[in-house]
Amino acid sequence: MLVEDNTSEGGKVFDYFIQGLILISLISFSIETFPDNSFETKQVLFITELFCVTIFSAEYILRVAVAKNPLKYIFSFYGMIDLLAILPFYLNAAIDLRAARVFRVFRIFTALKLIRYNRALHRFHIAAGIVKEEMILFFITTAILIFLAASGIYFFENEAQPELFCSIFHSLWWAVATLTTVGYGDIFPITPGGKVFTFFVLIIGIGVVTVPAGLVASAIAKARKLDDEEQQKLKN
Amino acid sequence: MLVEDNTSEGGKVFDYFIQGLILISLISFSIETFPDNSFETKQVLFITELFCVTIFSAEYILRVAVAKNPLKYIFSFYGMIDLLAILPFYLNAAIDLRAARVFRVFRIFTALKLIRYNRALHRFHIAAGIVKEEMILFFITTAILIFLAASGIYFFENEAQPELFCSIFHSLWWAVATLTTVGYGDIFPITPGGKVFTFFVLIIGIGVVTVPAGLVASAIAKARKLDDEEQQKLKN
Amino acid sequence: MLVEDNTSEGGKVFDYFIQGLILISLISFSIETFPDNSFETKQVLFITELFCVTIFSAEYILRVAVAKNPLKYIFSFYGMIDLLAILPFYLNAAIDLRAARVFRVFRIFTALKLIRYNRALHRFHIAAGIVKEEMILFFITTAILIFLAASGIYFFENEAQPELFCSIFHSLWWAVATLTTVGYGDIFPITPGGKVFTFFVLIIGIGVVTVPAGLVASAIAKARKLDDEEQQKLKN
Amino acid sequence: MLVEDNTSEGGKVFDYFIQGLILISLISFSIETFPDNSFETKQVLFITELFCVTIFSAEYILRVAVAKNPLKYIFSFYGMIDLLAILPFYLNAAIDLRAARVFRVFRIFTALKLIRYNRALHRFHIAAGIVKEEMILFFITTAILIFLAASGIYFFENEAQPELFCSIFHSLWWAVATLTTVGYGDIFPITPGGKVFTFFVLIIGIGVVTVPAGLVASAIAKARKLDDEEQQKLKN
Q1: Which residues of chain D lie closer than 8 angstroms to A185, CB-CB?
Q2: List of chains touching C (3+ CB pairs within 8 A)
């Protein structure tokens, strides 16, 4: 079957067609959010969506029919995404359109479908397995660091800027923007104490926040090595 | 004993209970900082804190009683944190509440307790040992670089922006925000000389400031390798 | 021939001369963009350009004449750049000067000529081959992530800031500036939901966006190793 | 001699004393830049400087006298820095104090003296040798990228923001602040074309600009390995 097999000529063409359709549906979804769309634009967008949803629905039904274990497919990660990609359309028709606008945001998950068709993800799964524990530890460390940074800056800046640093929850926003080095400039320390504290937070924090990227990179390098050795064995 | 042993079933349940309590106490600590809490909220927060401090105090006394060398525990890093987590509450009761609000900030150290219970930290300790020397060198280099950057920008920008770059100490804040690439936008060069100087500072500085993260990542990769080999030996 | 050979004494002198000329032509191109150049400046710039284009044209004709397969050179990557570096000048003379100002921007491609003469690029080509697949995957992942981030923030911030987050396309600009941690500060979330969303986007996103740099670095380290082994073999 | 030998007990004490003096002299230099120092402060600063320069001068004379080849020491990198650290003081006494204020900025070089006394720099020298070529290539690539980015953004934004992007030289400032992800927020694109261009510049540019840090990190890891092997050999 075309939907299952992505090594044959026909399967590949089908895959590229679906990928193109996902891209088109995402672009039309984005255009829909413009506040001042003309009636003609809205009609074109609706027809585009109708077409996409029809194909996606047909694909979904086919996949369920073809699957050896239909229930397993339906409740799998990709099965749920496939369903989420078409469900909002049918719900919109049943319930009031404006109230259901919120559900529409789930259509963005169709973007994940693009990933599905890529076999090179195999190495990433190996790499993910290697760094899983370290990543969790770093997320916990990052969370603690952000909390400590927020508490500290609240202590230093609350009196000088009671509007911006009015509670630890407000300071958390500063901690996130600072430790990730985004620094929008909407909130920053103005007292000497707060600035010195920021210096120490950044010197320690940048190390902690950017280490995971390095870990992922080295894990991918190792996964590539393992994958190459595996390929070598299969050839011999 | 439950407090000491974290491999048995009961020990694990106890650990998760304490971790949950720390989280609750941190959230209640954060909510307390809101400037406009109602009387009801304040009461709920006080009761929450009373409960947490009671448990933490009982845990602390138990740990001291159970320890083979009570003094060693009391003056250990975690012993100090355990004490700091409960002390502000008792001090608040003895001294005037408002004056002691400053001590309360130490309760954020309870967040560090979360780390205590995590065994995977072992590898991080190995990695820390590997990169210790380089990290110190990089911190010194970073400090020198920040000082040189601040002195240089003071020289270029002092005349054009005497308010912002009014001394090297004020310029240090610019150097920190720039070399860490946070760039809040509250202070930046406007003269051509200052901009060219910033270019060179950044090209050199980014390398220096972000290298420690790479060093930590590669040290963790090596620590994982050493740890795996150790585990392998123990099995054979 | 001098233009082809860059190992002989004469070839090296010729190469450095051409590189110097490219630098001069780029600086003169940049000065031309000043809005208030005097007539004298404009004349000096025109003479500089005339000189550069004359040399570049002579070099181009020589390269075509010397090449074993002239058509292959003309349609090669560097052949196209060599042509693009001189073409705008001749087009300017034929068509109205002001309308052709747009073509002038292509002269910036002469900067790429600088790369041409560098032999150390060999390792980079090896490294590029190693990480090619991962890079494509990361670009796709980055694109999906930016789209998801833009859709999400649109959902959270559209009502609070309809001017800035007026569609997903406008939110994309926020997603790009935030995930790359540039954070200009022209657009940022103000609602609590948007800020919490930004936190999660950044924690996940920084890893994804900065991993490619780590991959390139480790690939270059491996390419250096392969290159060293190759050199070793040639010596034995 | 104490000044030469940093392995004996006395030599170590002397080194720490000099390092402390450098720190004190740098802090006093920074305090001097405050625009509103009182007369008392200025006197204390002058006495501090007098003391530091006296010691540094004595140390310099001793080093020249002790050196096997005095001229070699005088014209060495550290010899020049040692001289630069004391020269401004004597020049200030001879020439008008206010005119010589500019020379005073050279005193910041005393910070480099701190590096001198650190033996662990050896590995960094090895690492520097390993990545030298790649670093130069990356600096060239970065320079080309910044130039291309500046030219491109000038083309897109010049008409919309003629004040900010008034020439390629002005756009270079934007390119530097953006590619290093500092993003002060004083200059950024507002046209859709400029924003899309910024997206591509950042996706490509972040890789290029942050790779050197990864290269340095992996080179240091390799240098550590080589250094360990060397130490191992010396023991056997």
Answers
A1: 184-185
A2: A, B, D
